[in-house]
């Protein structure tokens, strides 16, 4: 292994609490959105570096939130200082050639691409780079989610979170210190080294960046996108259930109720909601358990508050 490289950013993981505010308008409006690509070296876990490809320097890329009927005026850039490869963006929420990919394909240093699209259908949708080597680019971090709220909006909740899963295919072994180069052969064999949430191995756990805060009595909505590029996720909250599950990002049909685990295919986004009646950690995982326990697909929601023995009684300490 080559030694670990000097990092370009101390953190690659998108903040799971960085979610745009809910729609509070009832007439169509325009949104001016800038999206820039950035290739950078960061840590998968301490002592393990990797060259990521990103939207706005984070994994997953920034969550975009609009209302059905709104118009997005997109400015897409591939700056020469931050990129060595061709990039574009395909929005699954767009009617248009390649979801916009045809008209946003840029070589580093090209003049910015500008296009507009109207959000014609509601739901939570993936966006990702879609150049010919899209599997490499998506695996390296180039995916995110766009939320198109129905005209009536979404039911109010106390807290919203944003998580993205994807696979990292590297020439190093799991946990091996050093710089992990991308492994195209492993990608073709669909044999990942890591399967991670928000780009990092167990990033939101006590041993890394800490859990995600929440409180007893709250309701929590999680926006989840599986970038892939190859493997489905068995998405599950340990110690809870998805009390309302909007499968495949479908926000129009009645949600599933009290679902333990749901399949989220690569290139699909899903919305799950939980109630938090008791304190303690909730581990959001890919229930393909070797991925959760070993390869990195686990994040902890730390719920604080008073116990509720009517719901859960841990027994006597004596």
Automatic annotation (TrEMBL):
It comes from the Archaea. Keywords: Copper, Metal-binding, Oxidoreductase, Repeat. The keyword Repeat applies. Residues 1-27 are annotated as: Disordered. Residues 1-13 have a biased composition (Basic and acidic residues). Its cofactor is Cu(+); Cu(2+). This is Copper-containing nitrite reductase. The lineage of its organism: Archaea, Methanobacteriati, Methanobacteriota, Stenosarchaea group, Halobacteria.
């Amino acid at each position: 292994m080559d030694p670990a490289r000097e990092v370009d950013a101390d953190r690659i993981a998108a903040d799971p609490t960085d979610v745009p505010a809910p729609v509070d308008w009832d007439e169509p409006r325009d949104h001016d959105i800038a999206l820039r690509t950035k290739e950078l070296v960061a840590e998968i876990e301490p002592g393990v570096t990797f060259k990521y490809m990103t939207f706005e320097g984070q994994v997953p890329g920034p969550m975009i939130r609009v209302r059905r009927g709104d118009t997005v005026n997109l400015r897409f850039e591939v700056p020469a200082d931050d990129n060595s490869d061709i990039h574009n963006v395909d929005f699954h929420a767009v009617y248009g050639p390649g979801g916009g990919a045809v008209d946003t394909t840029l070589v580093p240093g090209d003049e910015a691409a500008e296009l507009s699209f109207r959000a014609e259908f509601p739901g939570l949708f993936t966006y990702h780079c879609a150049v010919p080597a899209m599997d490499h680019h998506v695996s390296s971090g180039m995916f995110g989610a766009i939320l198109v709220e129905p005209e009536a909006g979404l039911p109010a909740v106390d807290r919203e979170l944003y998580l993205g899963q994807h696979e990292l295919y590297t020439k190093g072994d799991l946990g091996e210190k050093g710089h992990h180069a991308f492994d195209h052969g492993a990608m073709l064999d669909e044999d990942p080294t890591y399967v991670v949430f928000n780009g990092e191995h167990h990033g939101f756990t006590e041993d890394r960046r800490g859990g995600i805060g929440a409180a007893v009595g709250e309701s929590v909505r999680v926006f989840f996108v599986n970038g892939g590029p190859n493997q489905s996720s068995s998405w599950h909250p340990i110690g809870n259930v998805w009390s309302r599950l909007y499968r495949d990002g479908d926000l129009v049909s009645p949600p599933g109720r009290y679902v333990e685990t749901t399949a989220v295919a690569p290139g699909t986004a899903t919305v799950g909601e939980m109630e938090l009646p008791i304190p303690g950690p909730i581990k959001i995982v890919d229930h393909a358990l070797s991925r959760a326990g070993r390869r990195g697909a686990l994040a902890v929601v730390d719920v604080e508050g008073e116990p509720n023995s009517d719901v859960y009684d841990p027994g006597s300490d004596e």
